[in-house]
């Protein structure tokens, strides 16, 4: 995680704040928490009820003078090593020479000045200093030592360690200062609250949710901006009538709502206001309405679905937040369908306007689906909280930073791919690489359709399910008894009664007369309205579908990194020539390793080393096997955003993509 920092939790003068953090411990450590490891742009906090999640977030949002260190442990080790080198340098080039100078016979110079004494005096006055533990000062201390070291250089004194030192630099330490903190609690609603007033109703002007939270948790409103949604009307009214920069943020928010809920039509979100009525104390008509291009009737916010209202509360405050702010959200999944949860996460991780704000998010959640989604996102850290009961009824809390790729926590929570059953249809693929390729194909194909497209939302209109390791996987790729095969077919039939399934399978170049070929034929014969099996017969594996243009843009990712660093332009030229000579379409019936090995021979060597990383593909007794890191290549192809003109050069990609698209559209509700 290149953007991650260990955030130091400085001691606070407020006893009530320090008392909170004294109950938290990193897993496996005996001393109370002094830093949060690997904080990132998005930080997900999970745990059962009463595991200290919300309490910890309330502590963090009241902290002051936050400092981030890239890998506190490594920086600590680097400081120790640096100071050792400083002491050794000062000893060898100041202390020992001074001692030798003092012990030598006295000398007299015609000019009256002893040049050796002057040199040693100057060097002693520029003695290198040890680094302190004041992290914000580290870089300036290193720069000052470098200035002093340059004076030693004048006299021919060299130390390679200081010449090349870069372990700690301007990117190692980050001051977060006292960021503006926004808190969206579970006690929230987009509805204005009303009370009966005689024969009519009047709007409750006070934010009673906010007052309740302040009573319970004693927040300082000058430190934390708490948004419950009850004053959404007032906030929208002020935003639409504020300075240009605030109005621009609000327009970006309206654009987000338009693109995702109203088919990209022009919309205006308005806090309806009558000044005369307001002056008279009449406020019952103060409502939020949404004007939609092409519609005669204005929609009232409270008439929209709970899901849209829920995401409006979350996204409004994020779009309107100040730059460099910290956003704290309790349980964003409340009233959000899994597809809406994905939309929320996609926006805070990918929306360029929000990325430019440089926001940091801390989010507590109970949602298995939300957690599942975060595992595929970059710049995300996950923390698992658990409670430890003590004999005196005091609780302490253990924090575990879940490493990237550690899925054991999903198993502990009993996570299933529940989106498969909540979406309109499911795309079943063998593994993550197939999922990424299909997403890349679909994204490119839909973009090529222009205005003719149907807007498709993952986890609402369709969801992916990876069947690797399941009985379906064993049925397709292993020797199954006839009774076991019958059971799998029966299970698929039963599942397809209530779930619309598109199942993709590689043939592995199996002959239709082989046992595997017969099973795949049986699978195809099960096709009906709710079940669409699609077998790729014409290639051994999905990587064989990649065209020349795709390989030209991606092959460098599996070349040796040290050579790419030195000869990137030359290697790209060699790749261009090699792929023009070796057509990937000639290898469709072979493992992709055969193609890569022939390319390896054609690319040749630089600095006596093969350019292509031979460990990227399997080596068999006879020939070569599949790509070892399929996921990495598939993620790269997804990130490259190839145009459909590139993909459609392979008719198998066209056929597959159009089949999946039509299947999703036919099941779109």
Task: Set down the secondary structure blueprint.
Layout: E1 5-8, H1 15-21, E2 24-26, E3 35-39, E4 42-47, H2 53-60, E5 66-69, H3 72-103, H4 115-125, H5 138-154, H6 160-163, E6 173-177, E7 181-184, E8 194-197, E9 200-203, H7 208-217, E10 224-226, H8 232-240, H9 244-261, E11 267-271, H10 275-279, E12 288-292, E13 299-300, H11 306-320, E14 326-330, H12 338-350, H13 352-356, E15 360-365, H14 368-374, E16 380-389, E17 395-402, H15 408-413, H16 419-422, E18 426-429, H17 432-448, E19 463-466, H18 471-477, H19 482-498, E20 501-506, H20 515-525, E21 531-536, H21 548-554, H22 561-581, H23 592-603, E22 605-606, E23 609-610, E24 617-619, E25 624-627, H24 630-640, H25 644-647, H26 651-666
Parallel strand pairs: 2-17, 4-15, 4-16, 7-10, 7-14, 14-15, 18-19, 18-20, 20-21
Antiparallel strand pairs: 1-3, 1-5, 5-6, 8-9, 11-12, 12-13, 16-17, 22-23, 24-25
């Amino acid at each position: 995680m290149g953007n991650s920092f260990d955030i130091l939790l400085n001691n606070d003068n407020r006893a009530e704040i320090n008392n909170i953090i004294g109950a938290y411990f990193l897993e496996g450590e005996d001393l109370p928490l002094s830093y949060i490891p690997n904080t990132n742009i998005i930080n997900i906090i999970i745990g059962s009820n009463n595991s200290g999640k919300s309490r910890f977030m309330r502590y963090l949002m009241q902290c002051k003078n936050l400092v981030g260190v890239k890998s506190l442990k490594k920086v600590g080790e680097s400081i120790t090593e640096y100071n050792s080198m400083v002491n050794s340098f000062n000893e060898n080039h100041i202390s020992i020479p001074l001692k030798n100078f003092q012990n030598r016979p006295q000398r007299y110079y015609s000019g009256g000045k002893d040049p050796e004494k002057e040199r040693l005096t100057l060097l002693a006055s520029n003695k290198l200093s040890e680094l302190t533990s004041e992290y914000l000062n580290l870089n300036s201390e290193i720069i000052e030592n470098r200035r002093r070291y340059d004076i030693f250089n004048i006299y021919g004194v060299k130390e390679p360690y200081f010449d090349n030192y870069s372990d700690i630099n301007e990117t190692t330490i980050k001051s977060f200062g006292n960021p503006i903190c926004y808190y969206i609690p579970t006690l929230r609603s987009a509805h204005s609250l009303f009370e009966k007033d005689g024969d009519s109703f009047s709007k409750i002007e006070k934010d009673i949710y906010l007052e309740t939270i302040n009573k319970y948790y004693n927040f300082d409103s000058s430190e934390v901006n708490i948004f419950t949604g009850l004053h959404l009307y007032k906030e929208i009214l002020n935003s639409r009538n504020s300075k240009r920069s605030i109005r621009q943020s609000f327009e970006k928010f309206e654009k987000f709502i338009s693109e995702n809920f109203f088919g990209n039509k022009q919309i205006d979100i308005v806090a309806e206001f009558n000044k005369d009525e307001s002056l008279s104390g009449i406020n019952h008509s103060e409502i939020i309405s949404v004007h939609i291009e092409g519609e005669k009737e204005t929609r009232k916010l409270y008439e929209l679905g709970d899901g849209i209202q829920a995401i409006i509360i979350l996204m409004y405050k994020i779009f309107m937040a100040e730059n460099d702010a910290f956003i704290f959200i309790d349980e964003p999944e409340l009233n959000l369908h899994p597809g809406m949860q994905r939309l929320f996460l996609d926006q805070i991780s990918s929306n360029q306007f929000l990325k430019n704000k440089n926001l940091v998010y801390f989010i507590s959640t109970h949602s298995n689906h939300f957690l599942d989604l975060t595992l595929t996102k970059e710049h995300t850290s996950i923390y698992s909280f658990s409670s430890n009961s003590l004999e005196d009824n005091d609780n302490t809390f253990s924090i575990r930073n879940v490493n990237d790729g550690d899925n054991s926590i999903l198993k502990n929570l009993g996570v299933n791919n529940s989106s498969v059953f909540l979406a309109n249809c499911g795309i079943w693929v063998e593994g993550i690489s197939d999922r990424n390729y299909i997403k890349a194909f679909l994204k490119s194909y839909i973009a090529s359709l222009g205005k003719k497209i149907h807007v498709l939302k993952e986890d609402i209109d369709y969801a992916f399910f990876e069947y690797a390791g399941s009985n379906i996987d064993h049925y397709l790729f292993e020797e199954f008894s006839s009774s076991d095969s019958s059971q799998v077919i029966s299970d698929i039939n039963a599942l397809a009664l209530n779930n619309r399934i598109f199942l993709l399978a590689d043939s592995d170049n199996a002959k239709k007369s082989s046992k595997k070929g017969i099973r795949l034929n049986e699978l195809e014969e099960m096709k009906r309205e709710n079940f669409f099996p699609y077998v790729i017969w014409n290639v051994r594996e999905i990587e064989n579908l990649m065209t020349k243009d795709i390989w030209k843009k991606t092959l460098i990712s599996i070349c040796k990194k040290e050579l790419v660093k030195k000869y990137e332009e030359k290697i790209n030229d060699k790749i261009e020539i090699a792929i023009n000579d070796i057509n990937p379409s000639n290898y469709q019936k072979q493992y992709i390793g055969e193609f890569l090995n022939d390319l390896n021979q054609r690319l040749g060597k630089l600095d006596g080393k093969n350019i292509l990383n031979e460990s990227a593909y399997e080596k068999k007794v006879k020939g070569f096997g599949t790509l070892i890191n399929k996921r990495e290549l598939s993620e790269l192809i997804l990130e490259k955003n190839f145009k459909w003109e590139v993909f459609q050069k392979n008719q198998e990609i066209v056929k597959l993509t159009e089949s999946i698209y039509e299947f999703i559209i036919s099941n779109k509700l």
